[in-house]
Inverse folding.
């Protein structure tokens, strides 16, 4: 079996920046064990598997370790593959996923995702979190997916070198850290998910589904220019629209070929 594969840098207009994702087109979803093995072989933060479903597509995402219920950058990459390679000229696509139908539209700068928001609540700092991060957060928020630590300054956020083994022992799949931005960005973040096989994710769409509702309430606005300050870095234009979050960014193709199975 020969499977078309694309590697796309998402949430960036520059090659070797943003977050790389593999996108693979299948006639049908293979057994979960095979999909997980392929994702581990690709060894990227996410591998997206696409199956055509009428005018739409079904979409699943795998890290090197696990299947995840939502992934922003690999959805952005999948939209680029559909609208630039599979169906050139197409302006919109709907992906059916574990998080429901996800609409992606073409824009002047790239693509805009329409995702469900992930609200959170303020909680006491969980045991072990400050020690794992190496810094005491101002506040901590939580939902079923992640902890989110609010930090005092951009300098602290950029200098973090978390204990990944300790983060992996926490009872959430990932930890977002965030702080107010600078003259260019409204807020800045980083995301750590070692239990998923992603010590630090370069640019995380799903994390912004938690970040945007928080910053909307704190800053009293609904549109943001955000930056994820990983080594690769990436920019996300964000909007809160009711109970949905729109995330806009560009994509750059890096690799196109076939995988042999």
């Amino acid at each position: 079996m020969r499977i078309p594969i694309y590697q796309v840098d998402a949430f960036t207009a520059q090659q070797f920046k943003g977050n790389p994702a593999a996108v693979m087109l299948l006639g049908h979803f293979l057994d979960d064990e095979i999909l997980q093995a392929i994702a581990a072989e690709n060894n990227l933060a996410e591998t997206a598997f696409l199956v055509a479903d009428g005018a739409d597509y079904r979409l699943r995402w795998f890290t090197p370790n696990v299947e995840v219920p939502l992934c922003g950058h690999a959805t952005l990459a999948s939209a680029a593959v559909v609208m630039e390679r599979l169906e050139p000229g197409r302006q919109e696509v709907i992906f059916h996923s574990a998080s429901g139908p996800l609409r992606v539209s073409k824009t002047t700068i790239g693509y805009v995702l329409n995702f469900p928001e992930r609200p959170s609540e303020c909680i006491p700092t969980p045991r072990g979190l400050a020690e794992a991060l190496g810094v005491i957060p101002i506040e901590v928020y939580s939902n079923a997916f992640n902890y989110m630590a609010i930090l005092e300054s951009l300098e602290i956020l950029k200098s973090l070198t978390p204990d990944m083994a300790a983060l992996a022992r926490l009872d959430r799949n990932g930890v977002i850290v965030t702080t107010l931005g600078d003259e260019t960005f409204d807020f800045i973040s980083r995301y750590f998910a070692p239990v998923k096989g992603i010590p630090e994710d370069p640019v995380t769409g799903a994390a912004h589904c938690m970040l945007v509702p928080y910053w909307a309430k704190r800053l009293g606005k609904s549109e943001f220019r955000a930056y994820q300050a990983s080594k690769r870095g990436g920019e996300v234009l964000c909007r809160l629209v009711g109970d949905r979050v729109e995330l806009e960014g560009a994509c750059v193709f890096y690799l196109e070929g076939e995988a042999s199975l």
